[in-house]
What we know:
By secondary structure, this protein is of the alpha/beta class.
Amino acid sequence: MISIxxxxxxxxxxxxxxxxxxxxxxxxxxxxxxxIDDVSKVAPIAKVGIALIGLGRSGKYFITSMRSLTTVVSxxxxxxxxTQEAQKVASEMKCKCDAKLDAALADPEVRIVIIxxxxxxxxxxxxxxxxxxxxxxVEKPLACxxxxxxxxxxxxxxxxxxxxxxxxxxxxKNFKVLKKQVDDGNIGVTKLIKVCLRDSPMPxxxxxxxxxxxxxxxxxxxxxxxxxLSNEEPESITATGHCYHPEIQKMGDLDxxxxxxxxxxxxxxxxxxxxxxxxxxxxxxxxxxxRGMLTAKNHMTSTVEVATASGHLLPTAVWSFPERFDQAxxxxxxxxxxxxxxxxxxxxxxxxxxKMMRHPxxxxxxxxxxxxxxxxxxxxxxxxxxxxxxxxxERDAKKRKCE
Length: 403
Ligand SMILES: NC(=O)c1ccc[n+]([C@@H]2O[C@H](COP(=O)([O-])OP(=O)(O)OC[C@H]3O[C@@H](n4cnc5c(N)ncnc54)[C@H](O)[C@@H]3O)[C@@H](O)[C@H]2O)c1
């Protein structure tokens, strides 16, 4: 049998266990990894059946992760409205396929549904899967409306089912080290956080039309990172941006955004995002505190620096998210499987049920950032609901005038 550790050098699971014991889901993943590693000495682990809906760019990295976890997971259904793609994946993974989720939800062998279809489909599939009694892993963002995100977490809580959103940066081994340093107080009081998320290559226009816009697609995971590092919800948000790309401009969206977040503790966070970085995938975090600074740098294609009479030449950054987050994507799946295996009575499950309650807050922050850009002013989170209501009234009034 293939060892989980043979496929993750160095072991993601063991690394999670060693350096992040404060994360119960991560700790569980370590235990699962150890059990699989030592499979000859422990009772066989029942494989967890998975249905995967959405077989595009993100569906592919879930398949890659599943291929390295064949001792613990089994893909039962590959689902996509692109039936050719679904058939192709089904024949490669030796599973069933469909264009719809219904048959997979009726299959008792399916315990987990992974939703990696386009963003505008997430909410519907999350609700449908939870109602069918499945544990749900949904790609980010869970949804673009605060109400929908709230409804989804409420339903998961009511049914006591796991609902995890794919913020894989939380399982990135380097970002986790940075987080632990912050939590251990090694830089003293954290005063400033800088998060840079610049995509490479620019996503296809078909994706940009369904992703909910840059504030929900790119700013949202950056704000989740800020929430993770600060354990706080924003007090106020100021956003500005520009659109250089004519096709993105036609969608009424931006391709370059900067966001300034102020927290009650005094902490300030600066987020910068761009749809296209010409030098490869650019994701960096800096945390500045009263005793020092932490920096998580880009992943480069090699560690070799060439020095000649013309200067020092560094290698390029890795090209895109599948290479940048290969470890994190597998680690998030290992953690999720460990969580589901642990069951509803486990501490990890209870902790995760609390942790998922942060999702409406992250969506509120993304909505506030978008509104700040649209209104051209700072949005205080306590005023968000009245500002949204006001802007809805204005939109309705404009609509009535046009009719
Ligand atoms: N966490 C990350 O790093 C990361 C990276 C990329 C994408 N994502 C997220 O993953 C999701 C998918 O993004 P992508 O880049 O893979 O998009 P994509 O366009 O490459 O793939 C989406 C797939 O969903 C399928 N689909 C659309 N509607 C469907 C429906 N009703 N039923 C079944 N299948 C349907 C499409 O046919 C397509 O194959 C998005 O929500 C995106 O935000 C996350």
